[in-house]
Amino acid sequence: MHKKVFIKTFGCQMNEYDSNRIYDAVKSIGYNKTENQDDADCYILNTCHIRNKAKDKVYHEIGRVKKLYKDKKKPIMVVAGCVAQAENTEMLNREKYIDLVIGPQSYQKINNLLKSFEEENKVEETEFDSVSKFRYFDNIKNNNTNVSSFLTIQEGCDKFCHFCVVPYTRGPEYSRPFKSIIDEAERLIKNGSKEITFLGQNVNAYSHIEGSREYRLSDLINTLSKYNEISRIRYTTSHPRDMTDDLIECYKNSKKLMPFVHLPIQSGSDRILKMMNRKHTVNYYLNIYEKLIKINSDIKFSSDFIIGYPGETENDFKETLNLVNKIKFINSFSFIYSPRPGTKAAELEITDKDKLKSRLITIQDKLFSNQIELNKSLEGKTLEVLVENKLENQNKFFGRNKFLNSVIFDGNESHIGKLIKVNIEKSNQNSLFGKVIDEMKAA
Ligand code: SAH
Ligand code: SF4
Ligand code: F3S
Hints:
The chain is of the alpha/beta class. It has helices spanning 13-26, 54-68, 81-87, 89-94, 110-118, 130-138, 166-169, 178-190, 217-225, 245-253, 270-275, 282-295, 314-326, 353-377; strands spanning 3-9, 31-33, 42-47, 76-80, 100-102, 123-125, 148-152, 154-155, 174-175, 195-199, 207-210, 213-216, 232-236, 260-262, 300-302, 304-307, 333-336, 382-390, 397-400, 406-410, 419-427, 431-441. Among the domains are: 3-129, Rossmann fold (3-Layer(aba) Sandwich), CATH 3.40.50; 382-441, CATH 2.40.50.140. The strands form 7 sheets. It has a 6-stranded parallel β-sheet with strand order 2-1-3-4-5-6, sandwiched between helices. A 5-stranded mixed barrel has the order 18-19-20-22-21. A 3-stranded parallel β-sheet has the order 7-10-13, with helices on both faces. A hairpin with a 3-residue loop joins strand 21 (419-427) and strand 22. Helix 13 packs parallel to helix 14. S-adenosyl-L-homocysteine binds at residues 50-51, 163-164, 166, 201-202, 237, 239, 264, 266, 304, 306, 335, 337-338, 340.
């Protein structure tokens, strides 16, 4: 009899990728993926530690699972992801319902841990071993069949921005071998992928050296571009310091690399960037921006902002607003600074929350109005859309344009996986709505 496994995923795309790979791994010991969270033999929480109350959220989730299974057999309860890494044995001690705690760099051991738990041992595994992890997964087929797939090429971070937990939860930077990545991409193509998004916490720091040759993200983009089945290539998240000229060149040469760059800046004030240990200035960022739009004026940008880093004054905040006025980001993330245990900034005094809330509202008004304006400007236009899936419980289909905007339209099953033309009739802040004009090409 097959056992069932359910994974609830929080956090970034890398966690989403990992959850899919965990499904692929546990299959070989008899666990099949289920979409029903209240009917699993093994329940995995893949957690995120990036902002406040991450730990509390996990315990809250476990409370929910306990209720779901009140009258049923208790599932094996696994906490994976970045909170698992940060808290490790502490979690097993605090919450008896948890059976296994496993950090992101230890997923190669998940099958052994599950088997050993079935023999009655509670375990915690939070070693950093990216090399073994990726070697192990190289031998496990990626069964993802999405039109648009994620592919992790790099993991971890050596930059140590003073606010950030990633270097502690994901460990040091590691780049997978070039060939393993291309092999996995080929597998995804066989499964039907038309779009691949390369992932890494510092994806553009990707560097794999073999003999005298260094492979960079630009090499991956150029190689993947040659596959006829692939119509679109993206990557995320990049750091301004690693936006090298070879990568910028790709925007000139590759028709498949989408003209949308997510490039987090965090603040528009050099003083704050320095305090954050970001290793770049506002001018450095603007310089990259200018290089990119010079090479391809079609490129649109998005960014991440932290509001109220300790010591941020009204003047620093105004500088961030100035930057947002200079670059029309079309889609950005902005959050109030949240102190993370173990980071350098955790020792600094935080600013009054009420003040910061009003700063957050001011910047979000600006960012959201850019977004609405761009979407409005697309009304009446015909866009190229890669169709991903049918929307649940609706007779509508979902795809994205080149800038990653969601496009919702009346279509049919045969459109899935194809690039089609959609005429946009309406829009709101988050989505574009339209109707199909014709199929551009059978991808
Ligand atoms: N590697 C990327 C970011 C990864 S974390 C980069 O260098 O930009 C994703 C985003 O979470 C960050 O860009 C930042 O805006 C936000 N973030 C990280 N730590 C945070 C904290 N302590 N408080 C608030 N936001 C934070
Ligand atoms: Fe975190 Fe900075 Fe590394 Fe990005 S570059 S993951 S923000 S430490
Ligand atoms: Fe969160 Fe870990 Fe990703 S902290 S953002 S899940 S790297």
